[in-house]
Amino acid sequence: MSSSTAWKKNCTDRVRLIGEIYFEYHRGTYTSQAAAKRGNRRSEELLHDVEFLAAAAVRLGAANYTFPTPELDRLWKLVLLLNQFHDISARIIHCAGL
């Protein structure tokens, strides 16, 4: 039996949700992945600080300094789009054993 067939067989008693999976009363709930979320938040804070300092350096006329737009853009995308994609950040697992 292929893994996709086994998955379908094991998940037949699950509720099928279509569309956005959002429950308004889940705001502020606890997570078992607090360290990952803390790390994600720390990454945001550090990138904010780096961007602020880079902007200040440009504004104050630091010699031979240009704002690192491509590198900051890459890092923001890495932090926000890859590390904090909703399924990764929440560690959502729909069926045991996957």
Q: Over the alpha carbons, how many angstroms does the gyration radius reach? A: 20 Å
SSE ordering: HHHH
Shape: elongated
What does the main sheet amount to? none
Average predicted confidence as pLDDT? 75
Low-confidence stretches: 92-98
- Count the beta strands: 0
Query: Which structural class fits the helix and strand makeup?
Result: mainly alpha
Number of H/I helices: 4
Which percent range fits the helix content? 55-70%
How far the N terminus sits from the C terminus, by CA atoms, comes to: 15 Å
Strand content: under 5%
Summed up, the domain count is: 1
What attributes does this structure have?
98 residues; mainly alpha; 4 helices; 55% helix; 0% strand; disordered C terminus
Describe, in plain words, how this protein is organized in 3D.
This protein has about 100 residues and is mainly α. It has one domain (about 5-90). It has helices spanning about 5-10, 35-60, 70-85, 85-90. Helix 2 runs antiparallel to helix 3 (about 70-85). The two termini are about 15 Å apart. Mean pLDDT is about 75; it is low at about 90-98.
Question: Which helices and strands occur, and which strands form pairs?
Answer:
Blueprint: H1 3-10, H2 34-59, H3 69-83, H4 86-90
Helix pairs in contact: 2-3
Short description:
This protein is mainly α. Helix content is 55%, strand content 0%. It has one domain (3-90).
